[in-house]
Predict the structure.
Amino acid sequence: MPKIKTYDLIVIGSGPAGEKAAVKAAYFGKKVALIEKSPETGGAGVQTGTLPSKTLKETALYFSRVYEKHIFESTEKHSAHTKYKQFTYRRDIVRNDMQNEVDKNFSRHKVDVYTGFASFIDAHNIQIQCENENVIEINGKFILIATGSYPVNPPEIPFDRKRILDSDTILKIKRFPKSLCVIGAGVIGCEYATIYAAMGVKVFLVNNRDKILPFLDSDIADALVRQMKIHGIEILFNTCITKYSKPKKASDSIHMTLKNGDELESDMVLYAAGRSGNTKGLNCDKAGIIMGEREAIIVNEYYVTNIPHIYAVGDVIGFPALASTSMDQGRVAISHMFGTNDLDFVQKIFPYGIYTVPEVSMVGMTEQEALSNGIKYNTGVSRVGDIARGKIQGSPDNGFLKLVFESESKVILGVHIIGRIATELIHYGMTLVHDKKTLDQMIATVFNYPTFHDLYKYAAYDGLGNLSGKNIKNPLKIKNFFK
């Protein structure tokens, strides 16, 4: 019987959290094994989630010319003649390139990579069921679970992976839908709804609430709804699908019944209303690990489970389930595990990026949170269409930046952006919130001209005008921006 290999660390899962944890431990001289059930490394971040969907968004912008066509008054639409293979070409290039980067990272750091399904034998030993039906057993002084999450598939929905899809299987379709019904107005649902709408697909967005993305500042969320409607998305609030009737012919539409009895027909359906921790088959009970809701793993502030030598990071522990925070969770876990003393915690102030068309990004406190916390606050707003860079670029979405600040101290509490490169612009706002900068300090900062960072300065001036009651510019109300 072959001798069982022993490692300082076993990492289960090769997504953003698992990759960064594994290579950091190896960098500090630890013997590391990584187990990935799929032949393709990178997890959902590379294969089915973060990067593929964001690449499709950029591709949709390229073919639809949502922004560029406004510069030269052209009405030509490229999306109507785009083949689906063209639409997915760049997605597959990015996916393959980034998978290669992940593989190189493991190779450079001499991480032993096993392909197969991992499960606990006990708290220190892991069994790997390989594709060739071989079974390998390895032992780890420490174990880190970074298995990510998977899309929920409620039993009442007749998923077929061809026309009734979840956020993984939509990446496998071979043609543009004639129409698409998206169920769930969370981040994934809103992103795919706007991506396909930009490509000329008729989209229905079904939401069981009266708002989309409830964690956003309401002005931003309302503006995104208006922009969705401009792009032809039909949003059905406060309802759900109660019945699905699959068509007899492939050419027929899927027939659905809404809660109020109304009928809806669509060529394809995307269910995007929730994800669960990917822990099925891990046999966490054999290691004594305590589980939480939605198959998530419960951890402390250092990502330690109830078993002192077993850690968990990334989507498998639930909120915030972002690739950006997951990477640092993996790094913090290694710092705590091996005492590297280089990264003790994940920053509590971090940005959210939503890759809709247009993009949305935020950091810090919303106006509604300031109000509910009893803070005396004010706001300042600047519009993309008013600044020089916006006029040069011909931005049609009339995006805007909104500051929330404390009235007396003028300390910036939150930054909220909707517009073409909102997810890039937000990082300066993150430093403002993190460092508790004031409007006056921000105004004293010099930016290149013309750039989109002027939005910050003019929003600050608008805030000072609102604070003093001497708002000379008297800009339009946000609710009128997209009319």
